[in-house]
Amino acid sequence: MFERALGWLTPKKPPAKSPTEVYPPIPMKLAFQTYLGLGWYGIEEGDDGTRVWSRNIAEIRIAPDVTRVVLSFTSHYYQWTGSPQTIEFSKDGIHDFTLQVTTERTVVTVNCKGNHLISIRTGTAKPSQFRRSSDCRALGICLDQLVVEPLRVPALSEQKESWLLYGESNPTGMPNTLQLEITSACNLKCTMCTNHAVTNPNLVSLGGHMNGSLWDKIRPILRDVEVLFLLGDGEVFAHPHFLSYVEEADSLGVQTVFSTNGQLLNAERIERIAALQHLFRMTLSIDSPDPEIYRRIRGTSLAPVMQALREMGRRSPLADRICVNAVVMKKTLPSLQQFPQQLAEMGLKNLVLRGLLNYDFTLDEECPEYNDDDLRMLRNIKEDCTALGVQLSLMPPIPGELVEVSRDERHQDLKYEAPQPWSELTGPQTKQCFDPWLRAVITRDGSVHPCEAFGLPSGPLGNLTTENFDQIWNGERFTRLRQDLLQGRQLGCANCVRRQTGPHPLQHFAARIVREKCWSSEKEISLTVRNTGAFTWTQEVQLYLGTSGQRDRTDSVYYHPQWISRNRVCTFTEEKVAPGEQATFRCPISKGEPQRPERFQLVFDGRLWLPSTQFQLPFATQ
User: Fold this and answer.
1) Are 369 and 359 in contact (CB under 8 A)?
2) Rounded to the nearest 10 degrees, what angle do helices 339-346 and 372-388 cross at?
3) CA 468 to CA 449: how far, in whole Å?
4) Burial, 136: exposed, middle or buried (Cβ in 10 Å; 0-12, 13-18, 19+)?
5) What is the mean pLDDT of residues 141-169?
């Protein structure tokens, strides 16, 4: 089938395969050398085992019954140079589109019904610009998967054996992340903390811990959460059961993120942290590497924190999960230039610099002016981090033109705080925030908020001491908040400095599962989805059914070789789907027996996951 689809003449007839031909990474080199006869523009192995450049262009010849070709690329060019890798696609000698690659792995679908030849040419870092004998760097793009899909008419008469488990009363699924403030007690009195600001009229009562009965109500929610953040106004290690809670979440396979000032770390606690299997990131708040400046801000010695950092830096892979966070203030910025070198020497790789949040108390004199000298120091820090292999993120309220989120996976949850490319959208001006669809914050007294900065005078959206979480998350108050945010009516969010302002993306990128038209068998799944957004879907928008639960997981027991990749199942079968119309996602699945139900969800690659499209396997039998 593959020989016929590509139109190449090969010495031996390949064995019969399924209607969609997939070549996984293991036999990739042999397959590409056989079928992409004009060479490829990524990296190949030379005769002596070195990685060398090949040609600038590849061509794929298309047989009449092939409707599309799905290509996935692996590229480190953007990560290493800061500039997009460009790829130009042509069909039958006519330019079709240019792809700007800024992610490590990119999946592209080329519709080719009625075409005969696809030409793929690199636009940057061309192999012809380098000498094979001396330049073997892994720049450019490697093609790591090729899928050629012949036209296939769905067999609508196949038996519908079961229905999707998808409740109409749960339109947003469950939150992707849960944030807990397990304590408001703290062992320090930092000068910029709102809990100690003398002009703060609403000082939080310090010393309170989340009690065991409230944790018992949170425990069932953890089964539906991908990431658990343990953050808040207090110091997490002040809570006597903090590490026990983290270990319990870890045993459920939940990724954990927490922040600490590091003063209460000791050898026994570091040992328990190192044993966590699903720790995503541990952040240590250190506002300056200068001991005297640190003492003036935090009122205590820096030495025990630095000793803990050195100890964790010697433990791999724990060192990769450690992140230092510093608040940028006038008195700290000059000394922050020491951080890249110090972290690199300790074996630590992650640094986040946040602008100072001035809560209208007494911090005006501490806010940097971001003048030429300030910008020069920030550029020095960025350049040193790049040279030393330290991943740096610059976060609001640092001026928007300076905000930058590292592409390293340990920083990816920060991307929603950075400016996003939504300039093409139209609609009411609002905060382009996804928190009410993605996360919930539960404070130590059981109050539930959409984020830690939520400021409505009416207070929280519910409380776990009197309601269960599902009632709150899918209740009237959360629903009204989401609708008000979409329409620009959410006054409680108007002054937020952590999200940019503009039309809300979920007014445009939106879908809902049509439950009565979805079905599955042991071998196949068929999902029908209505386009409830404001623009027409085409194959170029890269809307896929992706693995969820833990987004982009690659260990699904239902994985089938005909999937686009390990974490992308399929795209819709129609050529285009206008607003109000329905799209069909149909794909094979392998017979699997998961330890717990697996989740899947629609995702616009490189844009966002659609909140109302999550479902799980196995299905509920009717």
Assistant:
1) no
2) 20
3) 14
4) middle
5) 47
3-state secondary structure of 105: strand
DSSP-based three-state secondary structure for 470:
helix
What span, in angstroms and rounded, lies between the C-alpha atoms of 582 and 604?
A: 16
Q: How many CB atoms lie within 10 A of CB 531?
A: 22
- The pLDDT assigned to 193 comes to 74
Average per-residue pLDDT in the chain? 79
Structure-block tokens of residue 587? 């794909």
- The DSSP annotation for 502-571 comes to ES-GGGTS-EEE-GGG-EE-SSEEEEEEEE-SSS-EEGGG-EEEEETTTTT-S--TT--TTSSSSSEEEE
3-state secondary structure of 583: strand
Predicted TM-score (pTM) of this structure: 0.68
Contact criterion met (CB below 8 Å) for 278 and 301: no
**DSSP strand pairing (227-230 vs 105-111):** unpaired
Mean pLDDT, range 207-235, rounded to an integer:
88
- Euclidean distance between CA atoms 61 and 112, whole angstroms: 10
- Encoded tokens for 277: 């299997």
Paired strand residues for 11? none
Across 41-50, 174-183, 272-281, 430-439, least confident range = 41-50
CA nearest to 90, candidates 66, 65, 67, 58: 58
Placement of tokens 């400095």 in the chain: 497
Pairwise CA distance, residues 453 & 440, whole Å: 12
**CB distance 359 to 200 below 8 Å:** yes
- Pair 121, 36: CB distance under 8 Å: no
- Amino acid at position 461, single letter: L
Q: At what angle do helices 267-274 and 303-313 cross, to 10 degrees?
A: 40
- The DSSP output letter for 277 is S
Nearest CA to 589 out of 294, 164, 35 is that of: 164
Beta-bridge partner residues of 447: 463
Question: What amino acid is encoded at 476 in this protein?
Answer: E
Kind plus residue range of the DSSP H or E element containing 484: helix 476-487
Instruction: Find out whether 152 and 203 touch, Cβ atoms under 8 Å.
Output: no
Judged by DSSP in three states, 473 sits in helix
At residue 33 the predicted structure's pLDDT band, cuts being 50, 70 and 90, is very low
**Which residue in this structure is represented by tokens 């599962």?**
513
Q: In this predicted model, which residue has the larger pLDDT, 58 or 307?
A: 307
Q: What angle do CA 208, 214, 219 make, to 5 degrees?
A: 130
107 closest CA partner among 549, 568, 572: 568
pLDDT tens-place string over residues 322-343: 999 999 999 999 999 999 999 9
CA 498 from centroid of its chain's CA atoms: 18
Token readout for 318 is 């724990």
The angle, 0 to 180 degrees and rounded to 10, between the axes of the packed helices 339-346 and 303-313 is 50
Going by C-alpha positions, the residue among 287, 285, 323 that lies closest to residue 414 is 323
Asked if 433 and 499 touch (Cβ cutoff 8 Å), the reply is yes
User: H/E element holding 269?
Assistant: helix 267-274
Instruction: Give me the phi and psi of 50, to 5 degrees please.
Output: -75, 155
* Residue 186 identity: C
